[in-house]
Amino acid sequence: MKRAAIYVRVSTDEQGDSVGAQLAALRDYVAAHDDLTMAGEYIDEGISGQKYAQRDDLQRMLADVDAGKIDIILFTKLDRWFRSVRHYTATQAQLD
Prior knowledge:
The protein has helices at 19-31, 56-66, 78-81, 85-95; strands spanning 2-10, 36-45, 72-74. The chain is built from four helices and three strands.
C-alpha cells in the first residue's frame, strides 16, 4: 500500500479552488483507491506559489518525504504545486 500525502495551496480567497474543495477532492481520491493510505495533509493557505521557501507545509512535507514517510504526493492542479520551472526542478531533484 502506498502512503499518500495530500498537498493543498490557496494564495487568496478569490481563487476558485478553496482549501475545503481541494481537500474534499483529494480525500475522495484516496478513499476510492484501495492501494492508497493517507500519510498526511499539508496545507499552505494564503501563500503565493512564488514564495516557494516560505511555504511551511510544503517544506514539512518534503522533510517527511526525506524521512521515508511518504510514497506519493497528491494535489488537484499543477499550479497548486509549482509556479515556475525552477521550483519544479528543485523539488523533483529532492524527490528523486
